[in-house]
Recover the amino acids of this structure.
């Protein structure tokens, strides 16, 4: 056996890992040891080339100390610690930024999804998908969480998302080139399959087992549901008008200006013919308000278009492959070589 093969799977000097599993953690002390046991067994059943990335998002229950102890069990374990709690999206972004695997998987630390089912999700990727999400068919959550999730998924599909029944499951596997491009912070981690679908990636789901939370407290209660809906509408707007951010403002501004011009024009004709507009001053105020609003919206639209033009950068997620004569290089392979 050569020196290269003697290196531990998680070593920086070793070859690129086959799989990187990213786990965001916040105050999950009772779950940490079972989590490590289950994830390591799952990864070792797939390949000897893997890394387990545990991201401590500002835990205050002693999780950081326990993670430091558990990290010594396997050289492929990487523990990343945030200075304070930044949120699940930020933890996922930190973990993915440090991940080197050809495939990047994510799973929540509450162990409600079974890491042993990771090979099934990886098989779906090998079958041609770019991103596969878990489908929690028999959810073991509160009635409110199940109903709110059902509504959220229906709304996401209505707004142009992929035909997935569980878009927000934390158990996912994706190709590295996609994972590195995804926006995850500020709640956008909930919409990863939606964004990947809009970018033209192949998205699917695989049914997974869902279990009751064994220990600890959920960090996603009913108070987060309105915020998730706002995030959904914001992301839909931003991605649909990514190239033309000023157009909605220009459209509404022109309509407002035309209506205001019509209202004021009608009153002007009446004044010229009758030398009075009688008691129609509220109508006049409404017309002037529409004109002012239209002017402001048009100015906002022009400014938005100008800023988009000045800050537009290359969109690397658009490129699927590069052909040089008879040679075709997949963008994911090209990134791995770099």
């Amino acid at each position: 056996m050569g020196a290269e093969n003697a290196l531990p799977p998680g070593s920086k000097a070793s070859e690129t890992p086959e799989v990187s599993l990213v786990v965001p953690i916040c105050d999950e002390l009772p779950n940490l040891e079972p989590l490590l046991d289950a994830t390591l067994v799952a990864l070792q059943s797939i390949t000897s080339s893997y890394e387990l990335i545990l991201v401590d998002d500002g835990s205050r229950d002693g999780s950081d100390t326990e993670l430091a102890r558990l990290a010594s069990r396997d050289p492929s374990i990487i523990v990343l610690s945030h200075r304070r709690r930044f949120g699940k999206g930020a933890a996922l972004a930190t973990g993915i930024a440090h991940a080197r695997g050809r495939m990047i998987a994510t799973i929540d630390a509450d162990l409600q999804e079974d890491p042993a089912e990771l090979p099934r999700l990886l098989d779906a990727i090998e079958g041609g998908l770019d991103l596969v999400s878990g489908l929690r068919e028999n959810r073991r959550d509160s009635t409110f969480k199940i109903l709110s999730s059902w509504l959220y998924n229906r709304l996401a599909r209505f707004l142009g998302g992929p035909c997935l029944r569980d878009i927000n499951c934390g158990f996912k596997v994706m190709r590295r080139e996609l994972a590195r491009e995804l926006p995850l912070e500020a709640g956008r981690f909930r919409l990863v399959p939606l964004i990947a679908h809009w970018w033209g990636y192949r998205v699917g789901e695989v049914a997974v087992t869902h279990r009751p939370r064994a220990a600890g407290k959920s960090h996603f209660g009913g108070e987060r549901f309105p915020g998730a809906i706002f995030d959904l509408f914001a992301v839909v707007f931003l991605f649909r008008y990514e190239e033309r951010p000023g157009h909605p403002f220009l459209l509404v501004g022109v309509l407002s200006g035309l209506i205001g011009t019509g209202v004021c024009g009608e009153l002007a004709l009446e004044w010229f013919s009758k030398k009075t507009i009688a008691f129609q001053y509220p109508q006049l105020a409404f017309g002037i308000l529409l004109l002012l609003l239209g002017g402001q919206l048009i100015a906002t639209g022009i400014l938005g278009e100008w800023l988009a033009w000045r800050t537009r950068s290359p969109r690397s997620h658009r490129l699927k492959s590069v052909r040089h004569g008879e040679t075709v290089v997949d963008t994911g392979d090209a990134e791995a070589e770099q």
About this structure: The two ends are 27 Å apart (CA to CA).
